Amino acid sequence: GESVGLHLPTLSVQEGDNSIINCAYSNSASDYFIWYKQESGKGPQFIIDIRSNMDKRQGQRVTVLLNKTVKHLSLQIAATQPGDSAVYFCAERGEYPGNQFYFGTGTSLTVIP
Amino acid sequence: DGGITQSPKYLFRKEGQNVTLSCEQNLNHDAMYWYRQDPGQGLRLIYYSQIVNDFQKGDIAEGYSVSREKKESFPLTVTSAQKNPTAFYLCATSRQDFFYEQYFGPGTRLTVT
Fold this sequence. Notes:
- The structure holds two protein chains of two kinds.
- Helices cover 0% and strands 50% of the residues of chain A.
- Chain A has no helices and ten strands.
- In chain A, strands 1, 3, 4, 8, 9 and 10 form a six-stranded mixed β-sheet that branches. Chain A has a four-stranded antiparallel β-sheet with strand order 2-7-6-5, with no helix packed on it.
- In chain A, 34% of the residues are buried.
- Residues 1-6 of chain A have low confidence and may be disordered.
- Chain B is globular and about 35 Å long.
- The mean pLDDT of chain B is 92.
- The A-B interface holds A 1-2, 4-8, 32, 34, 36, 41-46, 49, 89, 91, 93, 99-106 and B 1, 4, 6, 35, 39-45, 48, 58-59, 90, 97-99, 101-107, 109.
């Protein structure tokens, strides 16, 4: 996942612009990835997932890109809205036998009206 | 949050007391998980259960205990042995352990003084 630290990376975008949030993962054997959105004081919400046999997956206003060569994930949000303001983090599934998910620290997205 | 309930939302305890956090789900999911979230860190796995009456330790199980007597319920006890119990605790479920996306409850913020 992303680097661990006391301060989250931040991203500010104008309402209506596109947002790109990045995540570097650590294990080249990871085969499944998820993006979550977390609003303050709430539990994370599933946004979109992608398996390692894919490079790109699209949802409603969101697209996830996977670059296995450089172990990088990105989440693109089209026409960002004020309701998109939240912390976004990625999760990678580790390899067998543990298979557990490892979560990044997140990026705080602020949408400016 | 879907069909995952965590109660209470806020919990305050004195040091040295055990406390149990509730997690109930009506999604008919087999697998349930407990995570801990601290500022600036990714979610860390405490315990998980793939099936009733069975559970496994995660990365930070020391000072915690769980039970899985019913498919719908996976309570977490934070014991007095947990050195730094103040945190945001998240319960999650999935259809099958670590193979499918995990869905999170709203969380319980535990403060121990």
